[in-house]
């Protein structure tokens, strides 16, 4: 059973701006790109994504594309989803459907999400993104902005927003 550090080395993962580690594994170079409001995008991209006991949080962020998350190895990862209407959903990705864990989670574009390693050493997932991921289509959550939009979820917003860098 590989450890978090072994997965980082084996898969060539790098730190991700939202937290955890990642590496792009696919982009649909063989297809024509699709037009989006943000510009042309691949029809599909995918990544490996790893949360670890020392980097256990995927901080609040919003993607314009739809994303499928697939749990592959390790410990469960809890997802918090804030929909535009203020509704909050929580789901756990993991390997034990008998305990309510999902092997796959679909998150529509336009939904804020944060995730955290529920317990243990690491959780390894992959994500399939359509239209393909582009950093210009991702917004990192800022506590003051999210609190204005979703005042009823202050505790979760504060817990999973990336800390503000001094200066």
UniProtKB/TrEMBL annotation:
Transmembrane segments: none annotated. It comes from the Bacteria. Residues 6-140 form the DUF985 domain. This is Cupin domain-containing protein.
């Amino acid at each position: 059973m590989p450890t978090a550090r072994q997965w980082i080395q084996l898969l060539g993962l790098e730190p991700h701006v939202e937290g955890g580690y990642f590496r792009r594994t696919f982009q649909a170079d063989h297809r024509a790109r699709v037009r989006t409001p943000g510009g042309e995008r691949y029809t599909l991209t995918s990544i490996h994504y790893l949360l670890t006991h020392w980097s256990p949080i995927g901080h609040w962020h919003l993607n314009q594309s739809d994303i499928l998350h697939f749990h592959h190895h390790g410990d469960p990862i809890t997802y918090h989803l804030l929909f535009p209407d203020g509704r909050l959903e929580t789901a756990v990705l993991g390997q034990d459907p008998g305990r309510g864990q999902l092997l796959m989670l679909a998150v529509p574009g336009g939904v804020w999400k944060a995730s955290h390693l529920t317990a243990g050493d690491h959780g390894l997932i992959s994500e399939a993104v359509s239209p393909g991921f582009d950093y210009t289509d991702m917004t990192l959550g800022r506590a003051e902005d999210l609190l204005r939009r979703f005042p009823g979820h202050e505790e979760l917003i504060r817990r999973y927003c990336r800390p503000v860098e001094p200066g």
